[in-house]
Amino acid sequence: MIDLNDISKIYLYPGSTDMRLGITGLRKKLLISRSLEVNTLYIFCGCSKNQIKILHIDYGSIWLYQNKL
Question: Which residues contact 17 (CB under 8 A, 6 or more apart)?
Answer without folding.
Answer: 26, 29, 44, 45, 46, 47, 53
